[in-house]
Amino acid sequence: MSLVIVGSLAFDTIETPETRKEKIIGGSCAYSALAASYFTDPKIVAVVGSDFPSDVIDLFQSRGVDTRGLTIEKGKTFHWEGRYGHDPNQRTTIKTELNVFQDFKPELLPDYRRADIVFLGNIDPDIQEDIRLQLVCPKLVAMDTINLWINIKRDALLKVLKDVDMFFANDEEVKMLAGENNLITAGRKLLELGPSHMIIKKGEHGALLLREDFIFGTLAFPCENVVDPTGAGDSFGGGFLGYLDKVQSFEKKHLRRAAVYGSVMASFTIEKFGIEGLKALTLEQIEQRYSEFNKLVSF
Amino acid sequence: MSLVIVGSLAFDTIETPETRKEKIIGGSCAYSALAASYFTDPKIVAVVGSDFPSDVIDLFQSRGVDTRGLTIEKGKTFHWEGRYGHDPNQRTTIKTELNVFQDFKPELLPDYRRADIVFLGNIDPDIQEDIRLQLVCPKLVAMDTINLWINIKRDALLKVLKDVDMFFANDEEVKMLAGENNLITAGRKLLELGPSHMIIKKGEHGALLLREDFIFGTLAFPCENVVDPTGAGDSFGGGFLGYLDKVQSFEKKHLRRAAVYGSVMASFTIEKFGIEGLKALTLEQIEQRYSEFNKLVSF
């Protein structure tokens, strides 16, 4: 099959209680594509400025990522600055400089339009919708979002949601969008708005996969060494969809495993700053952690 | 084997966004003992006032609970009043009237002292210590606590902790007591303070069982119908220890199953007000939910 990932490539300035990292590589597309690259050869759709280092594009390509959908514009790459408190779930955005990302209106290449699986990463829902309309008979369209869009572009978001198959969102976003405090009830409400699959990301508490006929839960890997939580959700989505693209199946058993592989990839991401944790994993490391998840929950 | 449960019996006045219930039966001992009673015949140690309804004591006895350790004092039963917000994890204590519970200094009956498993439910750590010293060669002593004791009786709490085998606490309490934000690291720190087993309760996110040589995680049952979260943790502990008492084993596989049975019992508790959900379950209902947990996490 084939997987297209649409999202941001960025410079991230990240402050944790221990360290500050200036302008390291980030963005949802970077995390998702690298995580997916251990399962399939994802095609990416993104935009960067002329200041974006070419060795990062080389890295993507060396990991099998198809970068023909990456546009390099004159100007500066998107820059995000955020700060984490002692509780890594508490993140404050300090600065957002959209730069070339401001006019991101991608036109998909012909083979991208015919992708089997498309991941509309967290971007403006109007752009997500625009891309969705370019697709030709996709087997599965997944989308992600953040609370910003729920707050300022709710209608546009609901419009995309109506026509996608899978919605990745965190627990707060699910409750907020559904207007419902019980997470399961909230997830079920969103299933009525379009997507046949809800993937509820719960950070350190794992994730839930909700479908009308079944529910599956995975824990997060018990990491003691959380260096930088940035990109955990994007890595989860990339691992999830990358695995599905590899097995060419949306059967329940594969959806379950996809959720675990997603959690595995997220766990590698947060152990290092930025995309460092996803640069040079071996399949053995991934399989070993997958089997540790099995030990973690089997009874 | 034999299981002794020490804790409170109370009248609880509970307010949720939907309903208010005046002076219904509650207290950690009520929840733990009823939950355990589906696995074994627990002996309880508690105190009530002369206003405590005798039909509740009859209920305990009809469920096989040994009530010889229950003292009925002249005066009023402990009364707790609490309010839940729309987020059931947010609980505010409105009123605490200790009444006869104020002078609770139980002297254990001879056969109680020789119990195999003892659960020191959430009470003043000085009383927990006093009871612990009365025990004769227990196989497993477990304790629970709340943030109140961490705040006002930290030293006494640490003293009991040093000599128990299993510590039940919620995630906030674990982080607070360990002075550490990473939950796994915090749990491991507490393992160094005495107990060989940490059971970290995470409410709607499930529970973690931490031992030096292994870690196990269970999800909470995905309840859409959370009527009253009171007693979930106590029911978890009662189900956990009741199961261990039944199987007479502390092997890893039984500890894992104990955690799942604990989650099963907690899930029945929160579906109704007070102890209603624990009054008349069948073993079939319990086993069925246990197998649903298996479906929930297997991949």
Question: What's this, in brief?
Answer:
Chain A has 299 residues and is α/β, with parallel strands linked by helices. Chain A has twelve helices and 13 strands. In chain A, a hairpin with a 2-residue loop joins strand 12 (207-211) and strand 13.
List keywords for this structure.
299 residues; UDP-N-acetylmuramoyl-L-alanine:D-glutamate ligase; 13 strands; 23% strand
Protein architecture, described:
2 copies of one chain form a homodimer. Chain A is an alpha/beta fold and 299 residues long. The first copy, chain A, has one domain (3-297): Ribokinase (UDP-N-acetylmuramoyl-L-alanine:D-glutamate ligase). In chain A, 39% of the residues lie in helices and 23% in strands. Chain A has 12 helices and 13 strands. The first copy, chain A, has helices spanning 28-36, 54-62, 110-113, 125-132, 147-152, 154-162, 171-178, 183-191, 232-247, 252-270, 276-279, 283-297, and strands at residues 3-6, 10-15, 20-26, 43-49, 70-73, 79-84, 91-97, 117-120, 140-144, 166-170, 197-201, 207-211, 214-218. In chain A, strands 5-4-1-8-9-10-11-12-13 form a 9-stranded mixed β-sheet, sandwiched between helices. Chain A has a 4-stranded mixed β-sheet with strand order 3-2-6-7. In chain A, helix 1 (28-36) packs parallel to helix 9 (232-247). The longest helix of chain A is centred in the C-terminal third of the chain and has 19 residues, at 252-270. Chain A is globular and about 50 Å long. The model of chain A has no long low-confidence stretch (mean pLDDT 96). Chain A binds chain B through residues 86-88, 181-185, 188, 202, 204-206, 208, 214-219, 222-224, 226, 253, 256-257, 259-260, 293-299, and chain B through 86-88, 181-185, 188, 202, 204-206, 208, 214-219, 222-224, 226, 253, 256-257, 259-260, 293-299.
